[in-house]
C-alpha cells in the first residue's frame, strides 16, 4: 500500500471484506502506527481473520510525483526496516518482500518502524516555520538547505528530543536521534542538526512544496505528530513543541488533526498501560 | 518610562527608593499589565507610598532606533489611551500629560490598555512564522506586506480571537478585534485580516527585523502573550495558539518566558477570582 498515511483508513475499509489469512499487507511507509491502525480498521469492519499487516519505516524510493499518473524515482533507498504485527511474522514478510525488493530488512517491531519515522521531525516543523515563504514564493527555495536556519534547526532538535523521549519510554529497541539517522542514512557526521542538514549533499536541490496544503502537514501532523503526542500523554511526558505544531496546523487548516488523526481511541489504546501497549504493538494482543 | 516592557522590572526596582505620593509614572507603553507589575515591584521593594502608575496602550511614536542614541520618528500617533491604577486617577494623569502631549486620551482602566495591546497579536506570530526568512534574508522583506500571507493571517486571527475571548471574560470595557483596530487606527475597512493588512498603506515599507533576537519576541512573548495566557488559565479558557507561540519561542531561545514573564505570581494574582482581579486592576486593591 503506497499512499500517504491519511489514506490508510479508507484503503483498510475497502479491503476489509476481502483480506484473508494468507495475505500480507505492507504499508510503504506506515508513518507512526500505520500497521496498528490498519489492523484496528479491519477488526472494526468485522474482519477477524489472521491477516498479516506490516509497515515500512520510510518509503523505499526517494521520488516525486511529476504529474497525473507520472512519478520520478531519484534513488532507491538502501536498508528499509520493516516490521509486522505480531513481530514474529516479520521475518516471513521480509523474506517474501526480498524476492522483489532486496532493500527491505527486518526491524525489531513496529515500535521501531513507527518511532524512527523521521518525517515527523522534519516535515511539519520546516513547513510551518517557512509558512510565509512557501506561500509567497510558491515554494521556490530549497526546503532543507535554505528552509532550515539556525532557529528552525533548534525547533527540529526540540521535536526530535520529544520523539526520542517518548520512544525510549516505550522501550523502543533501536531509537535513533535525527543526527544519528542522518549519519547512517547519508554518512553525514556533525555534532548538531543545523550543520548535519547543511552538509548533506542529498538535500541539495530538494525544493519546498508549492503550497502549504501538502502531505508534510496533512499527512505528518495527524499520522505522525498526533500519535507521538498521544503516547506522550499516556506516559505523562510533555511534548510541548510537538503539541504547538499540531495546534498551529489545526489553526491554519481550521481542522482538529488530533480528532482526525491517530489518537489513542483510534489506535485502540485508551486506558492501557505500558506493558499492555507493548504487547499490542509487538504481539498483536494485550 | 519609554523602554521595552522587559525593562520595566529593573526600572521599577531602581526607582522604588525614591518615588513618592506626588509622582506619576507613565509606562509608554505598558504592554499587557505593565502598570500592575510596576506597582507590585514598588511594593516588594518596600515602597508603600501612594505613587500613581499609569500605562499607555501603545507607544506614542511610530519610530525606529537608527543607531546608538539616535531614533527616527516617522509619525506621531493620534488618540493613545492611557489608564492609571486606580482608574479614578486616570483623568488627572491625562490632564497633566496633555500639557505636553495632546494625543493621550483616558481609557476606562488598565484592563483596556493592557488587552488592546495589538503588539501581542502581530509581533510574535509574524516573527515566528517568518523565522527562516528573517534569518536567511537578515530581514530583507516587508514585515507586514510580505510577511503576512494567507496562512499567517489565519494564525493572527486565531491569536486575536484568543486575546478578545480573555478580555471579554475580564469584562474589558472596550475590546477591539485587530480588524476593528485597523479600521480605527488606519481607516482600513476589510472583512478579513489578510485584506486589512495588505490594504494598509501605513504598513508599506516597514521591513522585518534583521534577527529573531528582537523585541517582537523577547518583549512581546513574556510581557504580552504570557499574561494573556495566564489570565486565560484563571478563567479556564484555552489559549492554544498563544501557548504554542510561547512554547516555540521558549524552544528557540532555550528560555522559559512563562517563568521570566508576567505570570500570575509576578502579577500578584494567584488564587484570586474574577471580581478580586478586576478590583486590583481598577481600584488597586482586592
UniProtKB/TrEMBL annotation, chains A, B:
GO molecular function: oxidoreductase activity
InterPro entries the UniProt entry points to: 6-PGluconate_DH-like_C_sf (IPR008927), 6PGD_dom2 (IPR013328), Opine/Lysopine_DH (IPR051729), Opine_DH (IPR003421)
SUPFAM superfamilies given in the database record: 6-phosphogluconate dehydrogenase C-terminal domain-like (SSF48179)
Domain Opine dehydrogenase: 107-252
Pfam families: Octopine_DH (PF02317)
Protein name: Opine dehydrogenase domain-containing protein
Organism listed in the record: marine sediment metagenome
Lineage: unclassified sequences, metagenomes, ecological metagenomes
